[in-house]
Design goal:
alpha/beta, 19 helices
Length: about 500
């Protein structure tokens, strides 16, 4: 271990008033980097862990100044002391409902009360639950968060993918949603990327996009999947030079379909397609650094990122679990072990001379399970099985057809409809109907649902059981902006819509 780790225990405030006088976590990281003579992200994993564990102990002590947090912590960790990662894992997960109670309304979970001012309010649209919630960030430490995350993006993405010596540009379509988590957090991080000109573009039509593409120099653009899906159509009329100037297309919600990826590469010869994974309480949970790898890399020092089982314990490499984050920046309104609402698969850590960091792969929303009869079906697995089933039957390739994909369950009518957003939906619907024949899509969807189950489950939850459930199964092709495709208030199209 380096000498800079021989540090006294971090300051533990005795009162809420003392929290304001604490040094920021960024200042601690900067001191460590100066002493070590290297970036924090290049330190060996045990050295990073020692710093993070020390910070977790301080955050737990800060949280215990709040009665709600103190009750939660002391019930699971009577000593209130965090000496090991296992100690910290005893603290209960903060689920969506607990989070909403703590930071929305009277904001009873804040350590420093909102009346002290100096905070930024951020709202979540509730992609999975449909219920909005709010949280608060200390403004000064939120800006520090942006600098830490922006610097990482500069070193590991834009410095590498935006070539040349002249002006470089990065835009986001999320900039109009400044009260929503996506708009303020992503925009804040991108503004802090060194060496780029930032464009808070907001929703773009063809004219606005093409005007931006006329600027000389390489460009990147970040938006939700629906916004990125518009870019191939926006290429019509652009010069070859303008098309070649788009080097990064970064999507920030769900998964980008193979069709959109193929269309992007055809329209913009130099584009690299990357995922930017963020949520409330986690400005940048994970970044895809390599377009050819599914791995999302956590920014060392920004959050504690956990992948946990149903008991809140860490899963092993290769295993699937719930994504849980603890924001390490921010003393006045910390939140411990926030359950984001996503399932991911733990990957091997990246460990090389330039970056040592945790990595994971996105699986889907935690609530993406369909309940039909007595059986639970994973929507991401059902989607993959349906694509395979269509290919196996020499039916149209759904990957090549669909811009967006959504399962809609209506329990009142006992129906499950697969809604696909695609170009030329009328013509595609006619071709699909002809290929399916008189039986239609129902038998194919039922076969795919069974195929998505484990062998054990499929012995009982078979096609006969689906037929007995009384559910009707169908498929509908619609245009990319059709009202039949359900979207959240900020324009996201969740994979599963479950209507009671």
């Amino acid at each position: 271990m380096h000498d800079h780790f021989a540090e006294p225990v971090p300051q533990i405030p005795a009162t809420v008033e003392a929290v304001a006088g604490l040094p920021s976590f960024l200042s601690d990281l900067q001191r460590i980097e100066a002493a070590a003579g290297c970036r924090f992200e290049t330190l060996l994993a045990p050295e990073q862990e020692r710093v993070v564990l020390r910070r977790l102990a301080q955050l737990v002590a800060i949280c215990r100044l709040n009665p709600l947090w103190r009750e939660r912590i002391d019930a699971a960790l009577p000593s209130g002391q965090v000496a090991t990662r296992q100690d910290f894992e005893r603290i209960p997960l903060t689920d969506k409902e607990s989070f909403r109670r703590m930071f929305t309304g009277d904001r009873a979970g804040m350590v420093v009360p909102i009346s002290a001012c100096g905070f930024q309010i951020v709202a979540s649209g509730g992609t999975s639950s449909g219920l909005p919630s709010e949280t608060v960030y200390p403004l000064d430490e939120l800006q520090e968060t942006y600098r830490w995350a922006g610097g990482f993006i500069g070193r590991h993405i834009t410095d590498r993918l935006l070539p040349g010596e002249g002006a470089k540009w990065f835009a986001t379509t999320l900039a109009d949603y400044q009260m929503w988590s996506s708009g303020c957090m992503v925009g804040g991080v991108l503004q802090a990327v060194p060496g780029i000109n930032y464009i808070g573009a907001g929703p773009m039509n063809r004219d606005v996009f093409q005007h931006m593409m006329s600027y000389p120099g390489p460009k990147g653009l970040m938006g939700i999947t629906a916004s990125i899906a518009l870019l191939p159509g926006f290429a019509e009329g652009l010069s070859a030079e303008a098309r070649a100037s788009l080097h990064i297309a970064m999507f920030g919600s769900g998964a980008l379909s193979p069709k959109v990826r193929a269309d992007l590469r055809a329209a913009y010869p130099n584009v690299k397609i990357l995922s930017y994974f963020a949520a409330t309480q986690a400005e940048t949970i994970g970044l895809q650094l390599n377009p050819d790898s599914e791995a999302l890399t956590a920014i060392p020092g920004l959050h504690l990122v956990e992948v946990v089982d149903a008991e809140g314990r860490a899963v092993g490499v290769g295993e699937e679990g719930e994504l849980v984050v603890t924001r390490l920046f921010g003393n006045a309104a910390p939140c411990l072990r926030y359950q984001i609402g996503d399932r991911v698969r733990r990957l091997e850590d990246r460990a090389d001379g330039g970056l040592n960091a945790l990595r994971f792969a996105y699986v889907g929303r935690s609530g993406d399970f369909m309940h039909i009869g007595d059986t639970q079906y994973s929507a991401p697995r059902a989607r993959a099985a349906l694509i395979d089933e269509f290919r196996g039957r020499q039916l149209p390739d759904l990957d090549a057809l669909a811009i967006e994909f959504q399962f809609q369950i209506d329990r009142s009518t006992r129906s499950l409809t697969v809604v696909l957003a695609c170009d030329q939906p009328e013509a595609q619907s006619a071709a699909l109907a002809a290929a399916l024949g008189a039986a239609g899509s129902q038998p194919v969807i039922m076969a795919a649902l069974v195929r998505s189950l484990s062998l054990f489950n499929s012995l009982e939850a078979n096609e006969a059981a689906l037929a007995r459930s009384g559910y009707r199964f169908g498929m509908r092709l619609v245009g990319p902006r059709a009202p039949e495709l359900h979207r959240t208030p900020v324009g996201k199209a969740p994979l599963l819509v479950d209507r009671l």
